[in-house]
Amino acid sequence: MQNLKIHIDLVPKTCWFSNVRSQVSSSDWDWLRKEAYKAANHKCEVCGAKGRLEAHEIWHYDDKKLIQKLHSITAVCKPCHELYHLGFASLQGKLPQAIRRLSKVNSWTIEMTKEYVDIVFEVWMERSRKNWTLDLQFLDDCDIKYELIAKNDRLDFAEKKLKSIK
Hints:
Helix content: 40-55%
Number of helices: 7
Number of domains: 1
Distance between the termini: 35 Å
Radius of gyration: 16 Å
Shape: globular
Largest sheet: 3 strands, mixed
Strand content: 5-15%
Oligomer: single chain
Structural class: alpha+beta
């Protein structure tokens, strides 16, 4: 499956809710997201839509060293942003709509898209069995201060946040 307009790496369960937005000041988050919008020419970086944008963190995973590295922050429209959060879409009963959109965005058949989503969830399950170290060098490079949640506290933090949503 080549020529992806969107590549989905679901955040491992052990890292849920330990996102950049929760670890930096609101003014720094505003600066980061506005920089992403500006860099994208105020268009969704996935589908090219104009209008209201949201910021999404792109993470890269080193599966050998167990490092989850913040790679960038991207500007996306709400429908494309939901694609990055397929697990949450599934919890909300929106997975069929997300699969249709992902199929359209990547110019795939529904069958190809379902195969891809199955692989994404398999990778997520495997990664969720491990305790990751966060690499936030991206924020350091932007000279942004942050409060890092300790590796051993992230799973407890994620479970409490998830319960508060339900």
